[in-house]
Amino acid sequence: MSVLSKFKRSAVASVLFLFIVLIFTPASSADNISWFLSESDPFLQDWSLATMITTDDNWDNVMSIMGYRGDGLTSATGADPQSILADGASTPVDVNANQTSPNTFSTGGVAEFDGIADPTIALQGSGTADAPHIVIRLNKKSCPDSKYVSISYKLRDIDGSADDAVMPVALQYRVGDTGNYINLPDAFVADATDGGAATKETNVVGNLPHIPQGQDLIFLRIITANAAGNDEWVGVDDINVGCFAPTAAGVEVAGRVLEGKSKGASRVNVTMIDEFGERWTALTNQFGYFRLIGVPVGRTYTVIASRKGVDSAPRMVTVDSDIRDLELGID
Question: Among 141, 130, 128, 132, which Cα is nearest to 175's?
């Protein structure tokens, strides 16, 4: 199943789940309900369903996500969002709904742009919105103690105006309802935009440290800050949070690509794609052998060999340890 199909499935599932929840718990809104992570049920959210956000500052139809303006979380212009750790839940709940033009809409905070070709929510700081952010509420009770929580999303520069600023974005987490957030430094993006263009995209991946069973309520925060200069809109899209086996340093996947029955195929690209769209690639040597290192375990991959527009039949491989005898055929 493609990543896009998964996101579409997630949107439909979120609506159905929301309908059931609202019947049985009418006093609750979807954003206050934790998504229960499990090995078979990751949290997936894109923004293709326009009916999720239809009213300013209302997240009731969005499962487990809330946006905040972040007023007063920092007094500095151009602050590093990694330095902003205080809880922002007391700042105004924020979303500017149904926006159509990132180039001209200048109200800082959180916005939903559903009038563009690829809808997304986005963050932009301002003199009022000191540290705009979104918070994702999760429960990992169904994620075994031997697994870890992995987060991925895409940052999109959707502002093609002349505005130009350094737009850093941080990923943070907190265990439990109260307290400061903790940074995930490997997921920090120093500048998610390019001035005068709306083409830059940055794929972000972060892993939480081991959190023991019983400490199940987790909050994830994606946050920026009021920039020095004219802030730009940064989309936060294709959010994916899953429960996986530990990767440590990853493992090795090696093998050979053959032409015919036994001839090694040289200079063939071998690509492994996991269920979240992440890719690992290698080029075969003169004898057809290839080697990929640092491949995360506990995932299922589609493996394809490609040369001059010709692809091998795809192989589905589940990686639990080193593989050194993977064989692919190409004509």
Answer: 141
